[in-house]
Amino acid sequence: MKRLSPAAFALAALVGAPCFAGDASGFDPAAIDQCLAEASTPGARADCAGTGIQACLDYAQEKYTGDDPDFPQANCLDASHQAWEAKLTSVYETALKAQAGPEAQEALRRTERSWIDFRDALCRHAGAAAGEGKAELARARCIRDETARQAALLLSLEGGT
Where are the domains of the chain? Predict the structure, then answer.
C-alpha cells in the first residue's frame, strides 16, 4: 500500500487531490452498487454512504505499520469518497443525457454546481465543528457521505441504479 506521511496526506486532502486513487486500499467499489441495488427494492431504505468501509478498515489496519492512528480511517474515507465520486459522475452523466432539451440540461448543471457549493460549505463547517485534530476526518467523512447521498438522490429521480 502506498503510504504518505501525515503532512503529505493533509496537504493532499486540503487541495482535494485523490491521495490513494487506484491503490489497493481494501475498498471494493462493487459494494456501492450492491447496496444501491438492495436499497432500490420496494420497501427498502438504506444509507449506503458507509458501505464497504469496514472491510477497508480491517484491511488497512492489518497492512499499515505507521504511527498515525488516523491513517487507516483517512485512507479508507478517501478510497470510499473516490468510489462515490466515480458513481456520482456516472449517474450525473446519465441523468444529463436523459434531460429533454438544452434548457433542462442547463438546469441540471446549475443544480449540481449549487449542490457542490452547498456540500463544500457544509463539510467545511463539519470539519470546523469537529475541532482540532479531527477536522480533516470529519470533513472527509462529510464529503463522502454527501456525495453518496447525491448519487442516490439522482438515481432515485431517474428511477434506477
Answer: 27-158
